[in-house]
Specification:
The chain is mainly alpha-helical and about 325 residues long. It has one domain. It has twelve helices and no strands. Helix 3 runs antiparallel to helix 4.
């Protein structure tokens, strides 16, 4: 009896150790996938959606299920882009020991290349499926549905081709343009059109403003990583034209975004009472000056989060302003 009891206790202990080990492995894998998704980039991806949907609601047109699908599609596309960026930069040797920013998932061995490829396929499939449902809710199976299906496929391909494959966009100095198009026009004007089925000059100008701030996030990243990018042949704007050009360019992006928002508020809402929206512009201006004056661009990593959150705050306040 004692022997049987001892065997039972031993088996129970072995089972407990195995379960604990499995739980630890699952938790580690989940953390690695969360790290690869780069959650700190997600506020930037939804900023334009907030503005576009706020403007649509001001027009008296709103649809909660459509809003949820817009957010889900945008977040999934952002995660897809982050997975593809992790894989592309790893395969091109850009994410190496010399890299200044946070260690990427593949670079640190948290995930295998095979696992990341599966993650990219899954994210692409999910974003396409949710996007199709979003377009059906908005347009049915009309012309708009098929036009935006084409745009959606282009967005998925662009997210994957940003750093993956031969001659990726991000390695030819086209990253800034891609961010302006997809984080500016596609999110603001695109979401406004999907909800309202129309476009306005205000939507276009605010698209550019949000796009400029989003490009600024990319530019800070490129300033920080310029040394490693140059060695790996990643021809960003900063690598092509130099660090000082990148700093001046960054300040111009920040000032231009502020100017466009002021113009939009005064031109379409005809009151200075709404200029409280520009409270975050002080943060944006301080940020721009800090980047402009940075003696060592390798210390700029904290500015990425600041600019991303400032863009989100500006978007929320602008959406609130148009609803007043």
């Amino acid at each position: 009896m004692c022997a049987e009891t001892s065997v039972f206790i031993f088996k129970k202990q072995v089972l407990a150790v195995c379960l604990e080990s499995d739980f630890t492995n699952m938790a580690t894998k989940l953390k690695n996938w969360i790290d690869a998704a780069r959650l700190r980039t997600l506020p930037l991806s939804v900023s334009g959606i907030i503005v576009g949907c706020g403007m649509a609601f001001a027009e008296g047109v709103f649809n909660w299920p459509l809003l949820a699908l817009l957010f889900a599609t945008t977040v999934l596309l952002q995660i897809l882009g982050n997975f593809a960026n992790d894989l592309g930069d790893f395969q091109h040797g850009t994410d190496n020991a010399e890299r200044v920013g946070p260690q990427r998932t593949l670079q640190g061995g948290g995930l295998t290349v095979k696992a990341m490829k599966r993650g990219i396929v899954t994210a692409a499939a999910l974003s396409f499926a949710v996007g199709l449902l979003m377009l059906w809710v908005s347009f049915g199976f009309g012309v708009g549905f098929w036009v935006f299906v084409g745009i959606g496929i282009a967005a998925i391909v662009a997210a994957m081709r940003y750093t993956m494959g031969r001659n990726p966009f991000g390695y030819r100095g086209l990253g800034d343009l891609m961010v302006l198009v997809f984080f500016g026009f596609a999110t603001v004007a695109g979401s406004y059109f999907i909800v309202c089925h129309q476009i306005t000059l205000e939507a276009v100008l605010i698209s550019i403003a949000i796009g400029f701030m989003s490009v600024g996030v990319l530019n800070v990243n490129n300033l920080r990583d310029s040394s490693g990018d140059r060695q790996s042949g990643k021809m960003t704007i900063v690598v092509k034209f130099g660090t000082r050009f990148g700093q001046v360019y960054h300040l111009v992006l920040c000032l231009s975004a502020i100017l466009l928002i002021v113009v939009s508020l005064l031109a379409w809402h005809c009151t200075t009472d709404l200029l409280w929206v520009l409270v975050p512009s002080a943060l944006l201006l301080v940020h721009g000056i800090r980047v402009f004056r940075a003696a060592d661009v390798k210390t700029l990593d904290p500015e990425l989060k600041k600019l991303s959150l400032t863009t989100l705050l500006m978007s929320v306040l602008y959406a609130a302003a148009v609803l007043v």
